[in-house]
Fold this protein.
Amino acid sequence: MKQLASFMIALTLTTVPVGLSGYHSAAAQEADKEKPQKPKTRRSEVLGKNAFNRIEKAQEMMAEENYPAALEQLQAILDGGDRYKPYEKAVAIQTMGYVFAAQGDFGKTISTFERALATGNLPPRVANDLTYNLAQLNLAEDRPEKALQLLTQWFAAIAGDPAAEAFALKAQTHLMLDQFDDAEKEIRVALSKVEEPKQQWTRILLSVLLQQERYREARPVLEDAVERWPGVKAFWQHLTAVYYEADDEDLAFMAQRAMHTQGMLTTTKELSSMAQLYLYHDVPIKAAEILQAGMDEGSIEKTEKNYELLAQAYMRSREWAKAIAPLTKAAEMSDEGRFYEQLAESYLQDEEWIKAEANLVKALDKGGLDNEANSWLLLGISRTRIEKYEGAIKAFRKAGDDDDLAKDAFRWIRSIERRLAEQRRLEEQADG
């Protein structure tokens, strides 16, 4: 089972970088979800009537997805010279950023927001909010260095205690930079601020722990995660790997079964691995069910290896007749004779001597057998049962070349010779 355990660890733990990059991607996706919100325009002593009307009109155009018209309204403010105050122009530039964001052009969104901030004409609160938005956008655009710079600036500028989400965003940023200690510190602050952890935040913490191979610490986090979000396959996969790492094979098996029960195992590799686990834990009939169903519906490839595994499952379940079909398929695909040998052994179980003999001949012709002498011995026994005595003796002599089988082989030969001698005696008596 150590081989299988190693395979399973490879299947899950070696995918940690993929899973972890997935966590990184999820960080960017999370930032992407938190796109900048359009500012609420309101008349005030600061924002003049004309500017207010144009910005409001631009927002109406955005709602109608008429982005060129929206940009035209805003550009009119920028081209209006002294008619518009610096603050009004800064708000117009900021609003342009939202137009680009609505179109999914985050590159232009970022440059436009930076331009708005660079004016120095936005109120501190607005500037801080825009800085936070820029951090999110840079993270979504895979610019963690810039995102971290902006977040550091934002944390230094705000008054009061930041919300949990801000610490989580900073943790995501540190994680994308492989700054694991900082990422862990920030995400633990975020988690401490809420009663129920967010799934994404749990992923960040797990990324930190798994990438540092802190499996013992990751274990309770993963166990909690599968309880909270039982339908998330990645959590089950990593938990399985952590169990294997701790040599808790029974718990790993339970985790694998949970995934299978929930329909999470869909690929040939996953399903065949599950079948192997059932075989290892001495539940061969369950292994056979998985393999047979998978091959019937097409989720498991019909390969030599999988046909062999299915046959083994049936034979371990003592379902000899059901093992015949997959063994035949494997034998036809293989360059070696071992599957014909197994077929013969299945027929021997039911005392179908003629079929056993035919498959043993094929097995010996193809070669590549682990114990050729034993196959010769079985061939001799099969031929003896169907009274092919001459051929049986030849087979037993071949088997007798092996020191371990010589005694049995020559015992069979003597038995045949006595039988033939008795037949001759009876024939002579009948003739006389």
